[in-house]
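[recover] target loaded
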């Protein structure tokens, strides 16, 4: 097990919950429980009456560290990923069988058209069990299954944990991955890692779709908040969506009515790792979809790669998607500004880790000084020069 992952992600409650580390673990010792991060299974070997603890993680390529979206990896097997620039931005809505500007409807149209054209042979998505309303990572492999996906993408499920079943058990080779921005980032780390042993993921994941996201919520938001506090029976709920413009969790009932729960109440159920996220607009995904900035009864559609462009052009060709170039860019810029504020908070988080390291390693004090200056302004020249001395000597 990577101590870096434990100390810099899990211990600081920065885990995104994407499931990339669980999928990539070559020893199969990571699994999900009820915690905010994966759990490490301790294995033993029995020799007669002796029970020996196996150190399974000591001889490992640390794939979990390579693919974690909360870590910056460097070196020969590393993968440093810049954010993707937008190629196209438009307002979009699903047409054809389903006519809607809802984010989930637009994503379904993209997937149905892609499957019909042979661009994908399956997708890994977030869905909910209609009986319990518990979120699950689901693998869909035909049009009927894609259309039946209820969502929503705002309840947490470790989406990428399902990749091994999709790739190694079902033999899927042209996958779409749909989820929150951190899921798209974890998938991009999987396909960008230079370690050759991760080639099955690189070959199988063809496109990623992210939904604009302010945070994902724990499954008990339904039982503890919607049911108990607001008195909405679980069997009456058809869908759950988050409206950033209305500041509410919209609970759609089977009779067509909608009940709004203020996001101020919902935030208590957000995953702790969402506080470290600096991506609202899905800037590592091939395609990003959300409601901010779109025309009425439309969703904003952002393509960032040729694969994303192909997906959207194909949906238009099948007559399943309509697009309009009119988008409120100011609203998108405001969302990006919020992302930049979180990026600064994340930089402060890294500074705190570096300062702790510098207590035992004087050579890291110069790095602390540079990080501090980048966040809070220039320091006096003589102080900076003194720290440079500390950084270059043996640590007096």
């Amino acid at each position: 097990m990577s101590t870096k992952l434990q100390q810099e992600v899990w211990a600081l409650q920065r885990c995104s919950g994407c499931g990339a580390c669980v999928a990539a673990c070559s020893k199969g010792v990571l699994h999900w429980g009820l915690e905010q991060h994966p759990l490490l299974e301790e294995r033993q070997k029995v020799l007669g009456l002796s029970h020996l603890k196996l150190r399974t993680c000591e001889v490992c390529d640390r794939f979990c560290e390579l693919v974690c979206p909360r870590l910056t990896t460097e070196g020969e097997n590393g993968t440093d990923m810049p954010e993707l620039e937008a190629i196209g931005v438009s307002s979009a809505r699903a047409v054809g069988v389903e006519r809607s500007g809802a984010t989930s409807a637009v994503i379904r149209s993209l997937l149905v058209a892609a499957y019909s054209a042979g661009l994908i042979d399956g997708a890994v998505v977030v869905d909910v069990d209609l009986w319990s309303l518990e979120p699950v990572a689901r693998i869909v492999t035909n049009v009927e299954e894609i259309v039946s996906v209820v969502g929503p993408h705002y309840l947490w499920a470790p989406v990428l944990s399902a990749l091994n079943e999709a790739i190694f058990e079902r033999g899927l080779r042209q996958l779409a991955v749909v989820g929150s921005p951190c899921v798209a980032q974890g998938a991009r780390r999987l396909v960008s890692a230079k370690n050759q042993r991760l080639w099955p993921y690189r070959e199988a994941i063809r496109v990623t779709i992210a939904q604009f996201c302010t945070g994902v919520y724990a499954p008990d938001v339904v039982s503890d908040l919607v049911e108990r506090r607001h008195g909405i029976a679980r069997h009456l709920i058809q869908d759950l969506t988050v409206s950033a413009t209305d500041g509410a969790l919209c609970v759609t009932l089977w009779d067509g009515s909608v009940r709004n729960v203020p996001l101020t109440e919902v935030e208590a159920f957000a995953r702790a790792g969402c506080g470290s996220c600096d991506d609202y607009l899905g800037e590592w995904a091939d395609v990003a979809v959300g409601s901010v900035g779109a025309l009425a009864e439309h969703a904003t559609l952002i393509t960032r790669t040729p694969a994303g462009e192909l997906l959207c052009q194909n949906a238009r060709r099948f007559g399943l998607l309509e697009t309009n170039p009119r988008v409120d860019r100011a609203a998108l810029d405001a969302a990006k500004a919020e992302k930049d504020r979180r990026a600064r908070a994340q930089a402060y988080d890294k500074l705190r880790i570096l300062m702790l390291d510098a207590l035992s390693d004087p050579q890291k004090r110069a790095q602390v000084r540079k990080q501090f200056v980048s966040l809070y302004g220039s320091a006096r020249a003589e102080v900076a020069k003194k720290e440079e001395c500390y950084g270059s000597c043996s640590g007096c």
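[recover] notes: Residues 222 and 364 are 46 Å apart (CA to CA).
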